Amino acid sequence: MKAAKWRSKGPRIEGAKEEKRMLLLKTAARMFNEDGYDRTSLTNIADRLGITKPSLYYYVKNKEEILFLISKVILDELKGTLDSIGSEYATGRDKLRAFITEYIRLIRTDFGKCLVTPNDMALSEESRNVLQKSKKYLDQAARAMIMEGIKDGSLVTSSPKFSTFSIFGAINWMCFWYREDGGTSIEEITENILDLFMKGLEPRQ
């Protein structure tokens, strides 16, 4: 991976600071996935960005905060996806299908991989609790879509709870086996996952 481009000295305005912080997070997320969180140091990240380690402290407090912010960014994006789906689709089935499609798209990114890789114990209890609330929100939202589908007749299952567990578990596991050069496109994989779960949840004729 080529070194990320870090713009040279300039006015420390808030917009520029946030832009650089996001570049830092993107770089760190890629490195965490390539080399592992434990084996990636702040010095490694600074070297990849082409800056000094002390410069990093203007944007983040420590490596733990980097991991927390990466996870928060992807969870906030997923929550935004849920909000748009809620107003765009009519049935529980259509909402669930749209959510699964977007979840697959986002979870296979570097940020998404960091979210599902078991690095939670590197975070403080306070940080874990914050992220856990967002994860619970996603689970409850997906469960609500299934329950809405049961109510409107577009879905059927004896347990919305275990259905959501299965969906998240299957998609999260993609981060450990999916490769862009694996011979199967993400579009094909998405359609196969949708076919598996949507047909399993459709009412029998």
Describe the structure concisely.
By secondary structure, this protein is mostly helical. The chain is 71% helix and 0% strand.
Features:
205 residues, mainly alpha, Arc Repressor Mutant, subunit A, Tetracycline Repressor, domain 2, 2 domains, 0% strand
CATH architecture of the largest domain: Orthogonal Bundle
Count of structural domains? 2
CATH C-level name of the largest domain: Mainly Alpha
Helix amount: over 70%
- Summed up, the helix count is 9
Termini separation comes to 52 Å
Morphology call? elongated
The fourth-level CATH homologous superfamily of the largest domain is Tetracycline Repressor, domain 2
Regions with pLDDT < 50 over 5+ consecutive residues? none
Q: Average pLDDT across residues?
A: 88
**CATH topology assignment of the largest domain:** Tetracycline Repressor, domain 2
The chain-level structural class is: mainly alpha
What's the total count of β strands?
A: 0
Largest sheet entry: none
Would you spell out the secondary-structure blueprint of this structure?
Elements: H1 14-35, H2 42-49, H3 53-56, H4 63-88, H5 92-107, H6 110-116, H7 125-152, H8 160-177, H9 186-201
Helix pairs in contact: 1-4, 1-6, 4-5, 4-6, 4-7, 5-7, 5-8, 5-9, 7-8
